[in-house]
Structure formats: C-alpha cells, structure tokens
Fold:
Amino acid sequence: MKRGLFITIEGGEGAGKSTHAARLAQSLERRGMPTVVTREPGGTAEAERIRALLLDPGEAGWEPATEVLLHFAGRAENVAKTVKPALAAGRVAICDRFTDSTLAYQGYGSGVPLATIRAVGEAALAGFRPDLTLILDVDPALGLQRAGKRSTARDRYESEPLDFHRRVRNGFLEIAAGEPGRCAVIDSARNEDRVAEEILAAALSRLQEPVG
Structure:
C-alpha cells in the first residue's frame, strides 16, 4: 500500500486553519482520497489534556522552554497514535498546526533559541516532517479580530500583545522562505472560497508527486 501524505496547515490566530483543514479534507474525500484530520496541541486523549493546560488563560506562568517541551510531548503522542497510522494506511493526514507553530510562537514570538526547539523536535520526532505545509498568512490585527468574533473567551495565546503576534507572523514567513520546497504561503485575508481553492490546488499538486 502506498504511504499517505502528511499535510500541515499553519498560521497565526484567526488565519482560518481549522476551517480550511476541514474543507480540504472534505474536498479530498469527494475525490476518493481518504483523510484524517487532527490538531495540535491535541489529536489524542493524552495530547488534548496537554492542550487544555497550554491554552488555559489562567495558566499564564509557563516558561517558554516549558511550553516547547509540552508541545512536543503532545506532538509525539499525536504522531505516533494518529498521524503515522493514517499514513501507513494510505490516508492523507491533515494537521492543524505542527512543529512550525512551536518555532513561530515559542521561538520567534517568545525568544526560545530556534536551535533548541529543533533539537527537542529531533529528539521527540526523530526527523519526522510534513510533506507539505500550507502557511495561511494574515495581518495579525485582522486575525485577532476574526478570532474575537469566533469566541468571546480568548485563550492564552490570543491574549498576547499585538507585537508578539507580529513576531509570530514574521517567523512563519521566514520559515517558509527557508523551505520553499515544503512550504506554500497563502494569503488568507481573501475570500474563504478562493483560499480553499488555492489550498486544494497545492495539495493536489503534491499528491501527484511520488512520496518517500
């Protein structure tokens, strides 16, 4: 059986990651491609408990390095129990956030050295990486406005100041510039249908390539 494709969807708050992960899965399923959608932090019962800790606005005292370790603890669970089994079954695994979010938020946003995050990632995932990463780019002010409309209760990351979110956005763009073969930046400030079309086109293009 041919190995499936691992697609991650990244971006700042209010970029539309969850919406477009679901839309992409529906579009691929309609084309006869079985999919699995997961998220981070989360994706397994154990990782969802870590998610609750990380996003709780009452837990404002985490050290950024501790956040890195917690994110990768949940990520290791998600990869082992959700993503890899889906790929082994020939499915397309779509993940709402992955390692790039840790680099952008805890690295570019909070100042943890990128080399440290990558070393932790190597220890936790042993080089496991996405086949395709779609970075949904939106101005942080607009993204936070969107996120505010989605929910009246802000999580801990949404409550960070605007300058933090600008650093996060710049981080995602730098990551994409450094790995153009893996990453595609998509302007998610546009009409949702147009964004979904571009995401689907990028995914279908990669699905036609041989996957290692």
Notes: Residues 64-88 form the longest helix (25 residues). The chain has eight helices and five strands.
